[in-house]
Automatic annotation (TrEMBL):
Claim: Coiled coil is one of the keywords in the record: no
Name of the molecule in the record: ElyC/SanA/YdcF family protein
Entry keyword Transmembrane: yes
Bilayer-crossing regions: 6-24, 33-50, 56-74, 81-103, 109-138, 150-173, 185-209, 379-398
Keywords: Membrane, Transmembrane, Transmembrane helix
Lineage: Bacteria, Bacillati, Bacillota, Bacilli, Lactobacillales
Amino acid sequence: MSILPLLLFILYYSLGFAAIFFWRKKKIEPDQLFFQGIWLLVAVVLYTGTLEILKGSFYFLIPLLFFFLFYLIYRKNRARLLNGVLFQFFLVIFGLYLLYNFYLTKDWLIAGLFFAALAVFVLLVAFGLIGLLVFLYWNAIVVLKKETHTIANLLTLILAIFLTVYLIANYFLKSKSPWYIEIPFTFLSIVLVYLLANFVIFLTSTLLYQFYYPKYNQDFIIVLGAGLINGERVTPLLAKRIDRAIQFYQTQRSKTGHPIKLVMSGGQGPDENVPEAVAMKRYACEQGILENDILLEANSTTTYENMCFSKELIENQGIVNPRVLFVSNNYHIFRAGMFAHQAKLPAEGIGCKTAFYYLPNATLREFAAILLMHKRMHLVLLSIVAMYYVLSTLVYLFH
């Protein structure tokens, strides 16, 4: 193996690592891990490309083309599940390319990268379900201690119990059961695999949506409501949303001076004394925001209505092609972005952080909500599978 490509890799990876470190160091949200991860992928492609060019081939262009396809579609609309599908597909293509590159070049750095990724995958498959169960039970205990015992806050516990029962039944019953139990059980297994695949796509799409860094030239920031304490005070969760909007508002005013208004969006629920937007405005004013810089949208009861009614309010301000952001918790901004797209509101979301223990339940709720948004498609696909198993059973019985 020639030492020159390896030295080149060390050189341009080190330079890129240092450049990204100092570039992101002074940012409000450095996200070093994300940007360094992207650079590592780029550096690997540059390295493998160098090896290939020395061998007279150019197959490294294939994963690059898939990545650029993903990126173009992602840039056009960041809030869709197709982004997760394309990114996962890119990772598969990239893994296959690394395997081919090792076959072509016999370079052990490439082999190390490939087998490290393969080892992680094997460990996830072998121990992922056990680890998931341990994590779900642990999270359920923490949530039960810190939150109210509502169905929404018990999702991790319900999922853990269901998976435990399923695994026990799968081990003890399936192989020894008659056909009329085995076939439905197999169908249930397929449904679970289908849901798992959709969850991976959803999670990938949600994570990709987090990495957005808007310019400080926005005209409006919509803050999405989230319930009140005693019907009149913002909750800690809602306060974090408002604080995130205030942070951006103040940074823009100090950096560029571009005028910006906060749109407090939230109607009045049956158990609330005032509209959420009014309580949100009161909180923002207590943090030093000028009252004239706050607009109220106090009629919405859903995230979709948040987007529709806020859009109407913004259009009435008379700004041509306004630049708009919205703020919600990081687990919610992907679905909120889907609603913004449906409402034809050209806005992207920035998220505020959520307590780690709260994320699993919140993520499961978001996943369930997105499944319901596409329920027809899922029902059609699962119905086709169910029909196949019904026909298979009839053939088995009457053969």
